[in-house]
Amino acid sequence: MTQRREVIKAMGITAIAGLCGVYPRITAAQTAKTSDSTTTPYTVPPLPYAYDALEPYIDAQTMHLHHDKHHAAYVKNLNAALADHPELAKLPVDDLVKHLDRVPETIRTTVRNNGGGHANHSFFWQVMQKNSPGQPKAELAKAIDARFGSLSGFQEQFTKAAMNVFGSGWAWLSLDDKQQLTIETSPNQDSPWMGGRTPILGIDVWEHAYYLKYQNVRADYVAAFYKLISWDFANAQYQSGFTK
Question: Which residues make Cβ contacts (< 8 Å) with residue 77, sequence separation at least 6?
Fold first, then answer.
């Protein structure tokens, strides 16, 4: 009888938590395990900050759903698609999506979508940080000024690109094959990697990235993104583009 009361009590607590919008913190290790507890080839990286660290610009519930649900689904589907191709599953995910021609045609679209989703989101979490310095640094700052005239000039063009993505996709600041900064967009989970370019910054403009807080006002979400940019990470990406 005591055991039954404990079960009922636990069920009640779970129900209340759901109604209040309180979610348990699901770790990357938990989302990256199969049913028999063996680690799968690709795993969801842990967020480099708490779920609520980016508030008030991105809310904790959106971060929970985006990271632990959407990103985890891409990883699960990617691992399933590559179950019979362990040699491909050994590749870093950005290398995998760079070389989709190596992927069998029967699973190429699945790998493109879900491998792209995994690569893009793993990158996206690092693009943002709590207490962003607000300004680009070092060589990247000079390159942005040279290419776009100023930081505000870059923001104007980047915002326009992000707003012009029709439906779901991304806007990027990337380094092209001539080592020039360029602003580009991609549909769905495509990315600069797929064209041999180096992403410096990227913003996810799928509705699941912002709809709980901003509804249909994508412009407000894009404006908030500038308050979150990790310019140290962006500068490191920029420097890495000259060593490839």
Answer: 110, 113, 114
Q: How far is CA 180 from CA 19, 79, 174, 190, 214, in A?
A: 50, 35, 8, 20, 33
Q: Residue for token digits 């689904």? A: 73
How far, in Å, CA of 225 to CA of 239, rounded? Answer: 22
Q: Which domains does the chain have, with CATH numbers?
A: 138-240 (3.55.40.20)
Rama region for 28: left / alpha / beta (φ>0; ψ in -120 to 50; rest): alpha
Question: Please, are residues 212 and 220 in contact by the beta-carbon 8 Å criterion?
Answer: no
Q: pLDDT tens per residue, the chain (244 residues)?
A: 444 444 334 444 333 333 333 323 222 222 333 333 345 799 999 999 999 999 999 999 999 999 999 999 999 999 999 999 999 999 999 999 999 999 999 999 999 999 999 999 999 999 999 999 999 988 999 999 999 999 999 999 999 999 999 999 999 999 998 999 999 999 999 999 999 999 999 999 999 999 999 999 999 999 999 999 999 999 999 998 877 6
What single DSSP character describes residue 170?
E
Cα angle 206, 186, 124 (rounded to 5 degrees) comes to 55
Can you give the pTM of this predicted structure?
0.83
Select from 234, 229, 223 the least CA-distant residue to 162.
223
Continuous H helices in the chain? 2-19, 28-31, 60-64, 72-81, 86-89, 93-98, 105-127, 138-148, 151-163, 211-214, 218-225, 231-240
